[in-house]
């Protein structure tokens, strides 16, 4: 396939980064960016050496693929227009506001044989990718994602804003249907729930305890995984993985001769660039996206189930 012509719809905080990544890539041409704010569209267009639009529809005629980073309430409308125009899309999470909307987008993409990728960025986190070959049948998972308050993202509750990242990762790790959901949450600063905890029990017996907050003083992003042969701890901020395994050896822990420990440091990486590269590769090769519309739908369905029980 020849060089792809790319556009970005919605160049607020996150959309701007999408535009920057595309502008720096050698195998695509960033044709334009669109935003309802004329000033913002012109500013980011100038920054990235492209054209700015306040209406995204004329941009559809000029491109092959699009990143969509508009507020969640507009995901369905904008993505539907793009798919109907025959354009491949990378749609930021959450996929849509409702399951019916997600199903319609998935159907449109399938009928038109278009790549439809959902922006669950943590799939491309170097720490998560480092789990390949280590992770085996998790029995218990504990996740904490705590962040200081930011005004962006408050159009939805903390489950759809932050926890959905971990929901997607955990669903991908466990590979089993959810059996029961128990959750609690409270609004603290915004009108939506800002702190939430969910306990998930899966059909295969795995249990996950997931906490998300956007009203914390300090940031924390950790996940701990217990499986039959190991305990795995990931600290995203410290960029470190600790693995405790049954069986001693040269890495045996003093006082615990049957347990050995290994620590791995991983590079900072650029998850968004990896995500975009993955999307572009899927378009060029006709392959399946790393995070499909169906993946996005599953994460949304569980997030809405958690929300309904708050």
Description:
This protein is α/β, with parallel strands linked by helices and 310 residues long. The chain has two domains: 4-121 and 271-292, 3-Layer(aba) Sandwich (Rossmann fold), CATH 3.40.50.720; 123-269 and 304-308, Dihydrodipicolinate Reductase, domain 2. The protein has helices spanning 13-23, 38-48, 57-60, 75-84, 99-111, 126-129, 158-174, 271-285, 293-308, and strands at residues 4-9, 28-34, 51-53, 65-68, 88-92, 116-119, 140-146, 178-186, 195-202, 207-213, 220-227, 230-235, 240-246, 252-253, 256-265. The radius of gyration is 20 Å and the shape is globular. The model has no long low-confidence stretch (mean pLDDT 93).
């Amino acid at each position: 396939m020849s060089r792809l012509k790319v556009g970005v719809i919605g160049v607020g905080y996150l959309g701007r980064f999408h535009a920057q990544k595309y502008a720096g890539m050698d195998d695509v041409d960033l044709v334009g960016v669109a935003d309802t704010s004329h000033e913002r569209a012109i500013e980011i267009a100038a920054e990235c050496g492209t054209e700015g639009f306040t209406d995204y529809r004329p941009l559809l005629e000029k491109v092959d693929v699009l990143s969509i980073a508009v507020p969640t309430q507009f995901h369905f409308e904008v993505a539907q227009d793009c798919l109907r125009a025959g354009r491949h899309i990378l749609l930021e999470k959450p996929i849509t506001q409702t399951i019916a909307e997600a199903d319609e987008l998935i159907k449109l993409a399938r009928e038109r044989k278009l790549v439809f990728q959902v922006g669950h960025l943590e799939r491309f986190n170097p720490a998560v990718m480092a789990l390949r070959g280590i992770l085996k049948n998790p029995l218990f998972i504990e996740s904490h994602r705590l962040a200081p308050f930011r005004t962006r993202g408050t159009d939805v509750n903390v489950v759809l804003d932050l926890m959905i990242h971990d929901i997607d990762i955990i669903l991908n790790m466990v590979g089993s249907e959810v059996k029961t959901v128990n959750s609690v949450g409270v609004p603290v600063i915004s009108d939506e729930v800002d702190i939430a905890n969910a306990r998930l029990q899966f059909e295969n017996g795995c249990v996950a305890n997931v906490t998300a907050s956007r009203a914390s003083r300090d940031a924390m992003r950790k996940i701990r995984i217990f499986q039959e042969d190991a305990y795995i701890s990931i600290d995203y901020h410290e960029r470190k993985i600790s693995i405790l395994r049954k069986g001693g050896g040269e890495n045996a822990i003093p006082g615990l001769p049957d347990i050995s420990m290994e620590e791995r440091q991983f590079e900072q990486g650029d998850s968004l660039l990896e995500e975009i590269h993955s999307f572009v590769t899927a378009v060029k090769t006709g392959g399946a996206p790393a995070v499909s519309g169906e993946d996005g739908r599953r994460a949304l369905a569980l997030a809405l189930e958690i929300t309904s029980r708050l």
